[in-house]
Structures are given as C-alpha cells and as structure tokens.
Design goal:
seven-stranded mixed sheet; 163 residues; 7 strands; alpha+beta; 4 helices; Aminopeptidase; 29% helix
C-alpha cells in the first residue's frame, strides 16, 4: 500500500539534467531526447520542471517549457513500480501551480494516441480541479532525415483561470 507522505516533489536543479534523461530512459515508452535537451530544461525551465522523490530516491519527473503566455508539458514519467497510485497528480499539480503563479493564459500538452494511462492522468487531474482538457488537433510529426518516421500525437489545451 502506498503512503503518500513518503513522496515529495521538488524543483529540478541544473545538475539534474543527467537524472532527467535517466528517468526518461527508465519510463518507457517515453521518447529519449538528447542530453542537451534535458540540460536546457533544467537550466532555463527549472521553475516549471519537477522531480518526484520517494524518500530520497527519484522515481518520477515532469518537464514543462514556456513562452510569454503558454506553458507546454514536455514529458511526464513515473517508474513502473510507483505507477497507478495517483502520483502523477502530484507532478501535474506543481506545473499547474507554476503556470498560474506565472499568470499564463493556457497550458498545452500532447499525448500519443495509444497512451491511455497518460490521458487518464491528465483527464482525472483536470476533472478533479475544475479545468477542461480540450482536444485541439492530431499532430502528425515527420522527420526530413528519416522518410519512414511518422508520429501521431493529440494536442490538448487547458485554459487557466486566474484569480
């Protein structure tokens, strides 16, 4: 049985860039990006990127990047031994709070069409917190260097209500 008080969320530190990549690697089916990508996130977006700790061990993460008006959740992952316990809501909540604190108008995210657990996590969080998760479009991502590459993700937005 999971004890929620054994978990805490902390902001990413610049020195966590290698840890972010390792967590992404250990949380299939997440895409594994370059070390440089994780460094950029930990260096320039640490205020919207978080690590889930179980006691003193990192067991999950969420990264989000932003511009002047919108925040985009890049990745979320929880190690398999800790999945299915509602822990994703702890990570998602920190990004939503950071977005509201920064007075962003909207939050965006994309989810692979077959990633039902991720969709359910965001849907549940939004339903439980008074947000509408709106499907915007299906993204078809291609790669000029690999003509056989095609990835489909669904883009969602959430309008953020400012107090």
């Amino acid at each position: 049985m999971i004890k929620m008080n054994e978990y805490r969320v902390r902001n990413v530190l610049e020195s966590d860039n290698a840890l972010l990549r390792k967590l992404a690697h250990d949380c299939p089916p997440l895409d594994l990006h370059t070390q440089y990508t994780y460094w950029v996130q930990s260096k320039f977006f640490a205020d919207t990127c978080f690590i889930l700790m179980h006691e003193e061990e990192p067991v999950g993460f969420i990264t989000a990047i932003y511009n002047e008006t919108n925040i985009f959740i890049w990745q979320i992952g929880i190690l398999s031994a800790h999945q299915g316990n509602g822990l994703s809501a702890m990570l998602i909540d920190n990004v939503f709070k950071a977005a509201l604190q920064k007075r962003f108008c909207s939050l965006s995210l994309s989810i692979a069409e077959d990633n039902i657990p991720s969709y359910k996590s965001f849907e549940s969080y939004c339903n439980n917190n008074g947000f509408d998760l709106n499907r915007v479009e299906v993204l078809e991502i291609k790669d000029e260097l690999d003509p056989d590459f095609l990835e489909a993700e669904i883009l969602y937005t959430v309008q953020l209500k400012q107090a």
